[in-house]
Amino acid sequence: MSTEPAGEHGGSGSGRRFEADLRAMTRINLRPMASPMPLGFFTVAIASVMTGCLQLGVFDAAERRAVALCVLPAFALQFLVSILAFAARDVVAATLMGVFAGSWLAYALVTGTGAAGGARVLGVFNLAFLALGALMAAVTRPKRALWAVIVASLPRWAATGLGGLTGAEALTRTAGALGLVVAVAAGYAAFALMLEDMRSEEVLPIGRSGPAHHAVEGDLAVQLRNLERQAGVRRTL
To answer: What integer best gives the mean pLDDT of the chain?
Structure first.
């Protein structure tokens, strides 16, 4: 019987090649980074204030383009947050921030250009966002900061969508008021996360539970559990 390693030669002329066990020589490098979520939440808050004020009539119709230009940078900021969240292995936060980024870009382009049928198109867009938001809310409850912002956004997307389709002024005003509620929820989440990062402990309640709680309170072994099965390490998504 041959004593040569199986990884060097195939067996019995079958032509099949066996790879050596590489686990002992494999190293996975992790790079710590600052949380991008405060930036994402503050961006949601500011953009929601601007669009909410437009819906409430604080800005008149002639100022729609100026509002769109103010909202446009929210796309770049939240797209950046999404990329960093993917790098930090948080697919839920990354997906939410990426979708938010796309929504601000669509809003800014449609509103800023005054595209024909823009109100109705954005109405359907917001209703589609409502369906996505409901799905996101179902899986983000352990991350209470994200969950609270999504839950606060759901009625706003509904009112904005229906207002755009029907042209009902009351629904548009309601959506504007709900936009300010979203801004408060997002602003609180951003401020609480910044305080937590600065003091290395929870200062304002965020309400993490389940895996989200263990991720912050657990030791390094908890963070590395099942790492070999995560995207970027396994062979396929």
So the answer is: 82
pTM of the prediction? Answer: 0.76
CA dist., res. 210 & res. 92, Å (int): 15
Among residues 154, 190, 197, 198, the alpha carbon closest in space to that of 43 is found at 190
CA nearest neighbour of 149 among 196, 190, 198, 114 = 190
Residues sharing a CB contact under 8 Å with residue 201, sequence separation 6 or more, in sequence order: none
**Residue recorded with tokens 């390094």:** 220
Give the Cα separation of 3 and 45 in Å (integer): 67
pLDDT tens, 85-139?
998 888 888 998 999 999 999 999 999 998 899 999 999 999 999 998 999 888 8
Q: At residue 197, what is the residue type?
A: D
Is 13 or 141 the better-scoring residue by pLDDT? 141
